[in-house]
Amino acid sequence: MSPSKVSTIKFDEFFNVIDGKNRSGKDKHQGINPVSGEKLWDLPVATQQDVDDAVVAAEKAFQKWRYSEMSERKKLLKKMKDHYMSYADEITELLIKETGKPRQFAAFEAKGVAGWFDHHDTLDLPEEKVEDDEKVITTRYTPLGVVGAIIPWNFPIVLSLGKIIPAILTGNTIICKPSPFTPYTCLKIVELLQEVTEPGMIQVVGGSDALGPMLTAHPGISKISFTGSIATGKKIMAACAPTLKRVTLELGGNDASIVLPDVDVKKVAPELVMGAFQNSGQVCVATKRIYIHEDIYKEMLDAMVEFTKSVKVGDPESGSLLGPIQNQMQFEKVKEMFADTKNKGYKFAVGSPDVASGKGYFIQPTIIDNPPNDSRIIQEEPFGPIVPTQPWSDEEEVIKRANNSLSGLGACVWGNDLERAEKIAKRLEAGSVFVNSWEKPTPQALFGGHKESGIGGEWGKEGLKAFTNPHVIHSYKMK
Ligand code: NAD
Questions:
Q1: pLDDT digits over 275-301, tens only?
Q2: How many Å apart are CA 322 and CA 466, to the nearest integer?
Q3: Within this chain, domains 16-251+453-472 and 255-442 share the same CATH topology
Q4: Which positions ≥6 away from 440 have C-beta within 8 Å?
Q5: b/e map of 151-161 (b: 16 or more CB within 10 Å)?
Q6: Ligand 1 neighbourhood includes 232 CB (under 6 angstroms)
C-alpha cells in the first residue's frame, strides 16, 4: 500500500471494487452528462454474487479492524484524506461531468469534504463510567460490523465520504452503493482509497436500483446508512425489518423559512434566493417555502425577483451560479410541478411557466407569488429551482403553517431581533433550524430529520454513535 500518488488509477475506466480489487462485469450501464445529454463511460452492473463477495470480504476485514484503537483509525483517516486530496482535481472533473455542477461548486464539494475528515479527527467516543459502592458500570461504543451505504445523486462525494469516514472511525467496514445517475466519483474514490486501506474495508458496488434491495436484504450487513427520498426510505426500513438491521434514514424535506419584519431586505433577499436555488434546488435542505411578514412582503419579493434575474444558469465553465437538473427523471418531475403551477393559474413572480426544451436539463429559477396552502408547490418537495412565497401577519399562525408538513428536515428564521428569531426557531419541527442563514449542514453537527424526513442522523458526535452499539459492562466488586 503506497500513500503516494504513484498509482495505476485511470480516470476513464470504472470498476466495482471488491476485496481490494477492481472488478468488471458482463452487463454495463452508463451515466449521462446532464449538460450535453451524452452518455459517459461504461460501468459494470454489480450482481448478487458481487454483493455476496463484498460482504464476505467486509466481514473478514471487520474481524481485524473492529479491535483497532481510535488512534490507529485516525491515523488511517489522515492517510485517506491526504491520498484523496491528491486526486481532488481529477475527482472535481468527474463530478462536473456526472452532475453538470458549475466548476466552482464542484470544486467546493470535492475539496470541501476535507472538512469532514478534519472534524472527525477531533471526535472521540470515550468510555463512560458510573460507580457506586458495589459496582462499576462502563459503557463503550463498539462497531456494528458491515455497513451498507446507499447514496443519492445530488451530492455524490460528500454523501459518500460523509458515511465512509464515520464508519471507519468507529471500527466498521463499509460497502457503498452510489446512485445509478452519479456513480463515477464514488467508484473512483473507493478505488483510489484501496491504495491506503486493507482489502474489504471500503468497497463499492454500482448498478441499477435493483442493487439497493440486495444490500438491505443481506444478512451479513448490520446497518444501512441511507440518504435519499422519503418513498425509498420507507421501502428500506421495511426491507431491513426481517434482519433487524440498524438504519439511519436521511430523507427529503420541505423546509420553511420565516422572515421577520425587522430584517434588512436588501441583505436578506439574495440569501433567501440562494437558500432556495443552491444546486438548482436539488438539496434535501433547500428552502422550499418562504413566509415573509406582510409589512415587507412586496419589497422583499421585488428584491428577490431582481436578484433571481441576475442568477446565471448554464454549463459548468460559463461562470454560472446554477447548473442543470442532474437527470432526466428529475427534470420531468420538476417540469410537472411547473405545469401544475401554470395550470392552476398561480402567479409567476419571476421565471417562465414553460420550461424551455433544448440541450441539457436547464431550468431558470422561478418564484411563485402566494399560491394557496393546499397547492402542490407548497405541499410537495419539488427538488428543482422553483419556490413559493407567502405573506404572514400572526406569529402563532405562521409557526403552525411552517409546521404543517409531514417533513421536518430543516427550517430557517430571519430576524434582527435574535431573541425573537430563536424563540420561533425552538418551535419549528425540524432536525436542523438555521437562524439568519440558509441551510448549511456541517460535519460539526448532527444532521437528521424529524417526522417523515428520517430516522436518526449523521455527523457530529451523535452521528458517530449511530455507527456503534452501546456495550455496557456491569462489573461487581468481589465481596
Ligand atoms: P432515491 O430515493 O430515488 O435514491 C437514493 C438511492 O437509493 C439511490 O442510490 C438508489 O439507487 C437507491 N434505491 C432506490 N430504490 C431502492 C430500494 N428499493 N432499496 C434500496 N435502495 C434503493 O433518491 P434520489 O432521487 O437519489 O435523491 C433525491 C432525494 O433524496 C430527495 O428527496 C432529497 O430530499 C433526498 N435527500 C436527502 C438528504 C438528507 O440528508 N436528508 C440529502 C440528499 C438528498
A1: 999 999 999 999 999 999 999 999 999
A2: 34
A3: no
A4: 434
A5: bbbbbbbbbbb
A6: yes
pLDDT computed for residue 2 by the predictor: 43
Going from N- to C-terminal start, the domains of the chain cover 16-251+453-472, 255-442
For ligand 1, atom 39, the nearest C-alpha belongs to 250
Give me the pLDDT at residue 6, please: 55
Our mutation pick for probing the ligand 1 site, out of 29, 45, 150, 208, counting the most ligand atoms within 8 A of Cβ, is 150
Residue 317 CA to residue 297 CA, distance in Å, equals 36
Q: pTM score, two decimals?
A: 0.97
Which atom of ligand 1 is nearest to 239's Cα? 19
Instruction: Give the residues across from 313 on adjacent strands.
Output: 322
CATH superfamily of 255-442: Aldehyde Dehydrogenase; Chain A, domain 2 (3.40.309.10)
Catalytic residue among 195, 250, 439, 458: 250
Quote the ligand 1 centre to 28 CA distance (angstroms): 22
217 lines ligand 1 (CB under 6 A): no
Q: What is the pLDDT of residue 356?
A: 82
Q: Which amino acid, 252?
A: G
Nearby residues of 338 by Cβ (< 8 Å), 6 or more positions away: 353, 354, 355, 363, 366, 386
CATH 3.40.605.10 corresponds to the domain 16-251+453-472:
yes
- Run of H or E residues at 80: helix 70-85
- The verdict on the CB of residue 448 being under 6 Å from ligand 1 is no
Is any ligand 1 atom within 6 A of the Cβ of residue 91? no
| 409 C-beta closer than 6 A to ligand 1 | yes
The low-confidence residues of the chain, meaning pLDDT below 50, are: 1-4
Is 395 a residue of the active site? no
